[in-house]
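To: structure subgroup
Subject: Chain for Friday's discussion

All,

I'm putting the inputs and outputs inline so they're searchable in the archive.
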Amino acid sequence: MSLLEQHFDVAFAAPDGIKKLRELILTLAMQGKLVPQDPNDEPASELLRSIELEKELLVKEGKIKDTKTLPPIALIDIPSRLPNLWQWTRIETICEIIVDCPHSTAKFIPDGIICIDTNSFKGGDITYHKLRYVSEETYLDRINRLSPQAGDVIFAREGSVGESVIIPTGMQCCLGQRVMLFRPTKGVLSRYLQLSISNPLFLTRLLSVYKGIGAKHVNVKDMRNALISLPPLAEQHRILAKIDQLMARCDELEKLRIDRSQRLLTVHTAALDRLLTAKDSSEFSTAWSFITQHFGELYSVKENVVELRKTILQLAVMGKLVRQDPNDEPASELLRSIELEKQRLVKEGKIKQSKPSPDINLKEVPYDLSSGWEWANLQDVLALVTDGDHQAPPKSDTGIPFLVIGNLNTGKVSLENCRFVPHDYYESLDWGRKPATNDILYTVTGSYGIPIFIDSDLEFCVQRHVAILKSAKSSPVEYLLHLLKSSYALKYATSVATGIAQKTVPLNGLRKMLIAVPPLAEQGRIVEKIDRLMGMCDRLEESISSGKSKQTDLLNALMPQL
């Protein structure tokens, strides 16, 4: 027992440690290892004799029916050794009544008498907000065999098998579907029975007979015959008191873990906000210094690594990720090169002459740019922003892959379960509707805001819910890909999205997205820095997973020693 208490800290560190610790406490309790035995306690064998006499009296009084003689417990069937005063017995032996629910669906009404089913309880407690009700007529029909009373144990025999609850004092109810009821005898505490039949070790033994069957469920016969460890009545009281004490400690650990995680998230969010809002290099250095000083603690949780990735991208598009070089050719030259390429594509008949983008109002830009950078609309850094064919394409068993959002929502092109269109249909499409190497796809409906870089010469086409960002030779594709993954881009897409049930980012809105364009040389430095920092984030997440795995392995190694 002392070993269990010594390793609460190990359970705290492991990802599912507290959950496993709760399960271990129950397992130890049902094995007679949670509290010391008292040689002065009346042994369970005497308790069983008293229970037998009590049940015989109830049969004579007509309160319960006589049950068939249960088979003796063979030595080979005994799961484990128990303390001297304990006894293995079958559940039916220690219950006055075990009854299944009515095999019919109750007719529910907005208010009335409670009908308990598997939705009515979780974690040993009544889920009052999920209770359902029946009329008095339905209630009387459903208690024909048995009227549930306070102290009865309700057990989920299907679906969430093993969930259980004790009917509280004053609750009038009947049984819904997929549950069974246990009424323990006077020598067995309701809560001891409840915890015994919800114990993971008991459920593992019980459900092992259903191996290979689809939906897990338990029938009444198996529960009647299932073995349960029975301690003296006095020890049952001590066990429950100890369980309450240890579960309270688990509650404290859980709250401590939640508070710690929340504190880390709050501090980290504030630190990143200071980075993003720094007005000069001095403020930026101070903010970054705080993060580096507390790096180990801040990045002990994956949630903070996720936020760090977002901040890296945001700093990149704000010009705060790498140093500027005054010798770099300014972004205005890059934009001129892209415009010349677009004019060439117009002459070749690949795109239409578009209206010049309106002048950008510097009072409306989200932040100031570094020297050499320029604000531009998304359409200004690409050859064309279009989408898939708006007409339903002809279907084909083979041919050219036709991709929908489901083939792209992981951020990569997937041909799994894709549809096909005929070659002649694909050939008839405009140049802009044939994605090619170095183009970017961008989902605009439903799961909108996902950019996908095309790095192969695979021929395919896409549905209308996918935007095609056709690149010019000078388009800053790699930088643009990172920008479209940033929280800035997603926030903009959300602001222009239309619709209620399913949001859609309109092409006109997408074309007007303001893009902070850095000099070409700086783009290379930015992309290199992003790749390096994202690699660091990958290693951080691997380290967190590895550390948690080691803590879990340590906890699993300790459990058999208890």
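Points worth raising on Friday:
The longest helix spans residues 233-276.
The chain has three domains: 1-16+250-327+519-562, 42-231, 331-518.

D.
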